[in-house]
Amino acid sequence: MASLAHTRSYGERALNATNTTAKLIFETMERKKTNLAVSVDVTCTSDLLAIIEAVAPYTHVDILEDFDHSLIERLQHLGREHDFLYFEDRKFADIGNTVALQYSSGVHKISSWAHVTNAHPVPGPSVIKGLSSVGLPLGRGLLLLAEMSTAGSLAVGTYTEEAVRMARKHRDFVIGFIAQRRMEGVGAGPEDDVSTEDFLIMTPGIGLESKGDSMGQQYRTPRTAVLETGSDIIIVGRGIYGTDPKEVDRIAAKAERYMSEGWAAYLERLS
Ligand code: S5P
Predict the structure, then answer these.
(1) In the structure, how many helices (H) and strands (E) does the chain have?
(2) 74 appears as a binding residue in the annotation
(3) What is the CATH number of the domain that holds 259?
(4) Whole-angstrom Cα distance, residue 130 to residue 113?
(5) 59: closest CA among 84, 80, 41?
(6) Which end of the chain offers a freer environment for a tag, N or C, measured as fewer CB atoms within 10 Å?
(7) pLDDT tens readout for residues 198-232
(8) Which segments constitute the Orotidine 5'-phosphate decarboxylase domain (predicted)?
(9) What is the 269 CA–ligand 1 centroid distance (Å)?
(10) Which of 33, 68, 94, 129 is catalytic?
């Protein structure tokens, strides 16, 4: 029997989630009535903070790149004040021992502040074992990149199936996928009970005003992603912060628009 995870509310799914972070994400989405994650790919601290302040009421996860360690306290304060979680889009892709060190140490100490991070499945289960050795004791969660939004992505077919099989064997730590569609039942064998499977699906490549960029990114609308292909969380970057991170009113208005389209599609999916 196929899983019906995406037909249940985020609140119901929180009740069944065993991983601490997955539970927290579902609860926060239900409480704040948002399934929007804002991807903040900027290089300068002041721009980063300005965007977070502008979009915080509309999000539950922010993705940070070019992170500066001195920001940790400020970000944790903002997260508590505005009730959102952090997803570091680090895309780990090395042997277990190396990713464990990258996750826990270095300048960024990602495991100390990011509730969720992600990894490419290309190294095999080793990458999960390494990250889990650091993240599981802290109650963190991991997403595997089972698919990508870019044209010509190699993460298709048996690669995607293997990613889901790997996740299935590590359900304590792997809470779901970066993907363009639902993954329950993908690559499953007769021994797998997929009827109760529930993966958190976070989907990038979302845009309302553009179909893509000049470097292969491809956009779909929040409605298509959430309603037609069952995404749980839409990840939006430039569609919200555009080209000028200083235009906070415009950024807040865009975040509001993506949030309401994403939530409306979710409500329609439930009905
Ligand atoms: O397949 C992917 C996976 C990711 S995590 N495609 C993506 O675009 N992403 C990330 O989502 C990407 O790294 C960026 O941070 C964000 C999309 O940004 P946008 O400006 O194109 O919305």
Answers:
(1) 10, 8
(2) no
(3) 3.20.20.70
(4) 18
(5) 84
(6) C
(7) 999 999 999 999 999 999 999 999 999 999 999 99
(8) 35-251
(9) 24
(10) 94
Question: 74 pLDDT exceeds 90?
Answer: no
pLDDT band for 42, please (50, 70, 90 cuts): confident
pLDDT at 151: 98
The reported pLDDT for the residue numbered 2 is 67
DSSP per position, 98-125: HHHHHHHSTTT-GGGT-SEEEE-STT-H
**Which protein residue has the closest C-alpha to ligand 1 atom 18?**
237
**Cβ count within 10 A of residue 58:** 27
pTM of the predicted structure, to 2 decimals: 0.95
Where does the pLDDT of residue 60 fall: very low under 50, low under 70, confident under 90, or very high at 90 and above?
A: low
Q: How many residues does the chain have?
A: 271
Q: How far is the CA of 215 from the centre of ligand 1 (A)?
A: 12
The answer to whether 89 is a known catalytic residue is yes
Is 109 a catalytic site residue?
no
- From the number of C-beta atoms within 10 Å of its C-beta (0-12, 13-18, 19+), residue 142 rates as buried
Ligand-binding site membership of 41 (annotated): yes
CA of 219 relative to ligand 1 center, distance in Å: 10
Domain residues for the domain of 96 are: 5-270
User: Given a cut of 60, is residue 62 above it in pLDDT?
Assistant: no
Single-letter code of the amino acid located at 8: R
Backbone conformation region of residue 66, classed left if phi is above 0, alpha if psi is from -120 to 50, else beta: left
The number of domains in the chain is 1
Contact 231, 200 (CB under 8 A): no
- Give the containing element (helix H, strand E) for 144: strand 141-145
Identity of residue 91: K
Angle at 271 between CA 1 and CA 240, to 5 degrees: 105
State yes or no: is 83 an active-site residue.
Answer: no
Tell me the mean pLDDT in the region 181-201: 96
